[in-house]
UniProtKB/TrEMBL annotation:
Family: Belongs to the hemerythrin family.
Name of the protein described by the UniProt record: Hemerythrin domain-containing protein
Residue ranges constituting the Hemerythrin-like domain according to the UniProt record: 18-125
Pfam families: Hemerythrin
Highest rank taxon of the organism: Bacteria
UniProt keyword annotations, A-Z: Iron, Metal-binding
Amino acid sequence: MTEPEGSEPAQDLSDQDIFAVLDSDHRALLELADRAATTGGADELAVHCEQLVMLAVRHFVAEEQYLFPLMRQHLPDGDRSVHRLSDAHRHLESELRRLEDVERSPQAVGPILADVRARLVDHVESLSQAFASLRGEIDPAEAQRLGDDVLGVEQLAPTRPRLDHSDSPALNKLVSLVEGYVDRIRDAYTHRGVERDER
């Protein structure tokens, strides 16, 4: 996933494993949430909120397709953990949908952003132990291959909060490809998530 505009130069993740890639996503999402919460003008606020939504949805899609199967296979309570994380994704995407629909003013956006950030912090913390456990179970070469897969799927994933979530990775991949294609066309046409001076 690409680091937000204005942050430190993005680390090349092409040779990183799945855990390093997802950790980088987590840092980028929290940074973007903080930037949106402290921004000044309405236009800048709108762009940062759009970028946050786009990056979060892509990240969730990647986790569901590649991380969740690992958790189910290798963690003793994997099914329960995945169910809990799936619910968290749904709740977060519901809040992200509110963020897209609400009037873009600090007064209206502030409480939603605060809730989104708190949920993201919970998300990161809930996965830190899972990552530590999985690193001992996954072959390093396989973990690196999965890191490449995550980077690839994030380029094709939807960028808008989804209404439906499938527990089937195969169905998830198919639906994501279709939704992602439509979202990218809409994003390009509307310049969604792009700074005004870069349009």
